[in-house]
Every structure is written in C-alpha cells, then in structure tokens.
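Why does residue order matter? Because the sequence determines the fold. Keep that principle in mind as you read this record.
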Amino acid sequence: MKTTNLGALVLSAVIGCSEPEAPQVPLQTMTIGVDAVRIHEGNPYDTTRTQFADVNYAGQPVMVGNSAEDGFSRALVSLSFPDALFDGRQIENARLYVTVGQTAMSSYDNSVCGLSLPLELHANVSSRWDSDTVTWNTKPSYSAYAFTTADVSVPCGETKEYTFDIPRFELVGHPDIPIMYNGLVILSQDDDTKQFRKEQIARHGGNYQIGRAVQVDAVLSDFKAEVDYR
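Structure:
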C-alpha cells in the first residue's frame, strides 16, 4: 500500500502560498543645503587678540587651523534636511564636500604652503546655533571623538575638494544628539607639536606659547552635502 507523507504535503503547500519578498527600495541621493561659519579663539595669552573670541565671522572666509599668535580657528557646519526626507523614507548616510584652499604657514605668511593640516569632524553638538551670532565664547560643546579625519595638503594658490563620509549612526541614529539636529564641527588636530614650525617662532623672537606654535591654516569654501535614502 502506498503511503503519503502528510507533513511534506503541508510544508509544500505553505511554501507555495507564501507571500513573495517585497522588492528592495532603490537607494536615492539628494543634495541638501549647508551652512558654515568660522569660530576663532584668539590668543588667550595676548590681550590684543583675546577679543577675537567674541567676534562673529558670518559672511567671512571659513578658516580652520592653529596659530601661535591667533589661537584656534574651527568651523561650525549645519546640514539642512528637507521635510520630504522624513516622509516615510529611511536616511542611510551622507557626504560632506569641502573645498580647501592653500594650507599655509599662517594667514599672515603665505610664502610656505602645501603643509599637512590634519582635519577632524566631530558630532554630538550640544545645542542649536545661529551662524549670524555664534562666537568662540558662545559655541556649543561637542564630542571629543572624531568620527572621520582627513590629512589635507594644498599647494600655494590652489584648491582641492575633499569628501568626508558621514555614517548613518552619526547622521540620524546617535542616541544623544545626531548631526541632523545641531550640525558638526570641523577642526584641525590639537596635537600642536606635530606641526611645530621652529623657524616661525624664531622669526618672531620666540615670544609665543610653544604649545600653540602650529602655524598652519586653510580657508574652507564651497560646502556641499548629499544624503542617501530609500
């Protein structure tokens, strides 16, 4: 007598009637707006330059770097997300494009260029800020961890475009403050001795704080950003 495997028949029927998997939504890319402004520390050891920390630099070149005379310059950057991106879509990641000008010994001596300027991007910016009013002294705090870095070097009179990848975690998934809310910060590495220019200090009589004798900066411009989403 022929026997029938009922379990196999049931399993076959279930498989045959199962719903097909939904097709993967293709990845799309959207260009979004970018706002950037310089914040400038000034030299806390020189009373003629401490006032820079209270200056708003909106509409002026966005400089990043370190200087023995003028302290740190950093860039606050915000990304503008259209409402359409939140209408049932899933944001994946983003890219920030920045054009970097000549990496010079300092803003007041552009005879030596093409120097190495290690840049870092930091997230978890603690509060919203206004590019028309923010200063070094009013800047929000941000993470000490750099989520991406780039060692930039640009010869005299030239520019180069650099791309910084922004992962989804930092962009929208950070449990504290994702980049989509309050933006990010671009700064040069604060390991000042790495860029120490002995000849520059000697030229100025050796009167400046050696720990700040980095003497490398660059102007950032043409900020652009793209977001990938499904």
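The chain has one domain: 28-229.
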